[in-house]
Amino acid sequence: MSKDICQNLDSLQQRISNACEKAGRNPDEITLVAVSKMKPLSNIKEAFGCGQLHFGENRAKELQEKMGEYGEEEIQWHMVGNLQTNKIKYIVDRVNWIHSISKSKYLREIEKRASRIDRVVNTLVQINISGEDQKSGCEAEQLPEILEYAQGLDHVRIHGLMGMASFVDPDEVEQVRPQFAMLRKLRDEHRKYETENVSLDELSMGMTNDMEVAIEEGSTMLRVGRAIFGERNYT
Ligand SMILES: *Cc1c(COP(=O)(O)O)cnc(C)c1O
């Protein structure tokens, strides 16, 4: 699929504006993370060239390689995929956001490594909102423990929650609304855990198929791949 990436970004911004207008929201409240997983560096360069600043990847090694191609501060890099303790070392010196904290042991590992280089890493706690076993994220009941653990850390900040809805056909996207609403409700219910380095202002939810519903339900970070870079070829 060869499409003009800048044109895709324009159409996407239009989709975001329309959804915001419908929801009575300001598009400035929403950060668009371009998910470039499995896509070549040339695609990232093209998107960067037309003003896209936030990029997301779902594998630590791939993220590490792509981050290495850009100077510090040029791009904001987001890790959106599953974490593994032994892979955190590949990304911690450069990644700006990690969306997929599902256990306090990941926070401990990030803190350990970020403290050595005096960095602060921005994170989100991923909740399993779809209820499907194969989807990652922690259960809602684990959230207090993770937030309390984070309160004691100096090199990790929590900014909010992330959720991935069930994968449904584009015309059935209303089905995922309760999952996004649940994430927001969970956020509202845990505001009491907010401290200097724990805030719950951000909601990372919404992808190519379900971003309009996510915006209506309060998303502040969209993670969008296919609408920008086209379909991914799985080999
Ligand atoms: C791939 C991926 C996305 C983007 O999905 P699209 O359907 O391509 O928009 C968002 N979030 C995560 C965690 C992903 O792995």
Summarize this, please?
This protein is an alpha/beta fold. 36% of the residues lie in helices and 19% in strands. The chain has an eight-stranded parallel β-sheet.
Fold blueprint:
Elements: H1 5-23, E1 31-35, H2 41-49, E2 54-57, H3 60-67, E3 76-79, H4 88-91, E4 97-101, H5 104-116, E5 121-127, H6 143-151, E6 156-163, H7 177-189, E7 198-204, H8 211-216, E8 221-224, H9 226-229
Parallel strand pairs: 1-2, 1-8, 2-3, 3-4, 4-5, 5-6, 6-7
Bound molecules: pyridoxal-5'-phosphate.
Pyridoxal-5'-phosphate (PLP) binds at residues 35, 37, 58, 80-81, 164, 207-208, 223-226.
Attached small molecules: pyridoxal-5'-phosphate
What count of domains describes the coordinates?
A: 1
Q: Describe the global form.
A: globular
* Straight-line N-to-C gap: 15 Å
Please give the number of β-strands: 8
Major sheet size, sense and barrel closure: 8 strands, parallel
Average pLDDT metric:
96
Enumerate the strands of the largest sheet in spatial order, edge to edge or round the barrel. Answer: 7-6-5-4-3-2-1-8
Radius of gyration: 17 Å
Q: Please state the oligomeric state of the protein chains shown.
A: single chain
Listing every helix as H and every strand as E from the N terminus to the C terminus, the arrangement reads: HEHEHEHEHEHEHEHEH
Under CATH, the homologous superfamily reads Alanine racemase
Strand content: 15-25%
The CATH architecture comes to Alpha-Beta Barrel
- Helix count from the secondary structure assignment: 9
CATH class: Alpha Beta
Q: What share of the residues lie within helices?
A: 25-40%
**Class by SSE composition:** alpha/beta
CATH topology: TIM Barrel
